[in-house]
Amino acid sequence: MDVGNDDIPYGFGPLEIRIAGDPSKLGLLRTVISAHAAAAGFGPDAVADLKLAIDEACTALILRMDPQGAPLSVIVNRLADEFAIEVCTAGALTDDPLEGFTGHVLNILADDVKAYNVAAEGQPPVAGVSMTFRPNTVG
Q1: Distance between CA 47 and CA 43 in Å, rounded?
Q2: How far apart are CA 74 and CA 58, in angstroms?
């Protein structure tokens, strides 16, 4: 598929990447996110911001997840006017991943940031961070 062709719609549907809940596994994720953002038209500074944001969000979840080492799912959705990234894990978090430095960094880099820690009755807990980036406002 030629992504540069104007006849092809911008959004291709979500891309999901699953990685081990281990900081040493984040390098490949940063590479994939960088390539996806560059293909979406983000400039080099915006791509660097996205890499930092994904790294911060994943690390915040990894450090706070219970049980430790649970896998992470990263879902990237490219739309015409935004780039949405959700990082989630099956399990609860020990505290809010947007507290302190991580929250400050993510709120500077992303247009919208939300954290969730949901435990519905009879269902396993799910926790994550969702971020939205707009190409004209990143970097």
Answers
A1: 6
A2: 9
Q: Please tell me the distance from the alpha carbon of residue 120 to that of residue 117, in angstroms, as a whole number.
A: 10
Report which residue type is found at 81. Answer: D
At 30 the three-state DSSP class reads: helix
- The C-alpha atoms of residue 113 and residue 131 are separated, in whole angstroms, by 5
pLDDT in single tens digits along all 139 residues of the chain: 334 444 444 455 688 999 999 999 999 999 999 998 888 888 899 899 999 999 999 999 999 987 788 899 999 998 877 889 999 998 888 889 998 999 999 999 999 999 999 888 888 889 999 999 987 654 4
User: For 58, left (φ over 0), alpha (ψ -120 to 50), or beta?
Assistant: alpha
Q: What is the pTM of this model?
A: 0.84
Q: What are phi and psi of 125, to 5 degrees?
A: -70, 150
Residues in the chain: 139
Peptide bond into 23 cis (omega under 30): no
What CATH number labels 15-133? 3.30.565.10
The rounded distance, in Å, linking the Cα atoms of 103 and 108 is 9
